[in-house]
UniProtKB/TrEMBL annotation:
One Pfam match: NamZ_C
Domain Peptidoglycan beta-N-acetylmuramidase NamZ C-terminal: 233-393
Lineage summary: Bacteria, Pseudomonadati, Nitrospinota/Tectimicrobiota group, Nitrospinota, Nitrospinia
Domain of life assignment: Bacteria
InterPro entries listed in its UniProt record: NamZ, NamZ_C, NamZ_N
Species for this entry: Nitrospina watsonii
Location of the Peptidoglycan beta-N-acetylmuramidase NamZ N-terminal domain: 25-228
Name of protein: Alternate gene name: yzbB
Amino acid sequence: MIHVKTGLDRLLADPFHYLKGKRLGLVANHTSVAADGRYSWLHFQEHADVELTTLLAPEHGLYGVAQDMEAVNQALEPATGLTTHSLYGKDAQSLKPDAALLAGLDTVVFDIQDIGSRYYTFIYTMAFCMEACKEAGVRMLVCDRPNPINGRQVEGNRVGDDCRSFVGEYPILNRHGMTAGELACLFNEQFGIGCDLGVIHMEGWQRDMWYDQTGLTWIAPSPNMPTLSTATVYPGMCLLEATQLSEGRGTTQPFEQCGAPELDAHKLASLLNKKNLPGVQFRPQYFKPGFQKHAGRICAGVFLHVTNRQAFKPLITGIAVLRATSQWFPDVFAWRTQAYEFVRDIPAIDLLYGNAELRERLLSADLSLLDIEQSWEPDTQDFLPLRHDYLMY
């Protein structure tokens, strides 16, 4: 098996080339692990010619213990004695580092494992840090890591200007097929951040690789992203966060299963299997979430078995689940009405999908799943050449 060398490992192999004599800030979480299994902040602290002064952590915190949309406070990192400053607090202003945090720094290093979906917030933490670095005159260095669901397949539409949020700050596709380092360059040049940016490339990664082909150890990037199988379905099943259906949070297999107490699991599985969606089979499923939606209640629904991950289309599959449940179980299906990622005046489904069209037309008799897929084509054709200019592998 090929063993990919991450950007972090390449940086640590020759840190002084980039960081000698520098005062360093580090944006990281528990996925920032070197080939020896040790955290990046321990490595940086041990280098005599590198002064690590500032730790910043994204949603879920440095060690990934907080649940989604749970405010994280600053805390002491026990191994280094450094204060970890949270970039996910109680309001939208907390998402971008304050200028005071960057004062006196020479370089900010970003090293966090992304999962390849537009909704996943770590790439926007990266972008907001890039903005702060631009304003402070500090260099930003991104250590690249694999896109775990491969870097070739793309799917979806772009975010409209009126639906920008922390789950879609820039007009990229739902499944974008890019690495964090590639996205950093795209954000910096195409979307006008304009910071002093460097990217430490990986060695050995190929675009058609899935994470289990890299030789790297999977570390769950967040509490509800436990496996590569979860990441595979997430670009579509994350849409269920915008409903009152359980997306499986509070269980050991989030996003691979979904449902609600009043659903008919066998009927829903049968309806979805008749769609003959590529690369997936639906099994009637019963589960009881330990927390969040329907906590402590038995939910009936479906489990997604991805039978061919190359053929599988996560986004249209997620939309098929939404359509079937809303059409056949209207008394159970409802959209989320609470604030979502600090936004109160735009429905969560519009933020996730990128516009209001899915919500407004989901039940239209004259709109098929194929029609929905074909509606993405203009966005896809606009995005692909833009994306191509920033591919590094």
